[in-house]
Amino acid sequence: MRRTTLLAFTMGVFIGRSTAQVESMVWAVPISGPDYALMWQAPDTASTVVAELTSDDLLMVQETSHVWSSVKDLSGRTGFMLRAGLQELADTTTEPTEQWVDSCFKHHQVLAEGYSNGWNTPDGNAFGVALNDHEDEYLAALRLFARYFCASGRTRLLEQLILTMWADRGSASESPSYQLSLCFRCHPEVVRDVIARFDEEVGDAAIGAIAFGLANQLDERDPIQKAELDRLMFLLER
Predict the structure, then answer these.
(1) 173 lies in a domain?
(2) ∠ CA 209-100-89, rounded to 5°
């Protein structure tokens, strides 16, 4: 299941960045209310609706007035949304959030390694049960991590996620690939820098996971999304 959140961010300067430059961002979710999930062609509710957004859409806030925000999603669509419909999620980059996600990723890695190393043994089966029981918490951490990384560009948890995904590479869940590719869409150069720190086998697995996630997020039949997919795949494979 795709489990992400509608996000918004503004361009700016990020202090304490990684090797590649990242952008500071303000995260937001749509507030429950009429017309808050709609993107219009002009700052007027009588104008054409460009898109009806869902919780899977990422938005860049380009300009903001008292009533309207000019936005662009990561598929390249542009338009206007009611400013009141974008609620900031400033808590995603706090230290408690980072510590909880880090602990969750590490715990999932230990369980996955125990299951893999003890395959078809009583100990391995016990790890498998614990791994399944931990899945909901892991998925929640993945969802929160995507917000955290896109908002901060900090790489420590990204490194841990790649290690966790490698340990759990036998999983059929698409959520890790989806969330990792979402991170790549926010900061492609930063993600590539981190992947380059791993050995070839682990790095190739991460690249494959991102490619899979991108293919499921962007529709090749749409010219704008196809152009964005081609751009991202070029950055990923170079």
Answers:
(1) yes
(2) 80
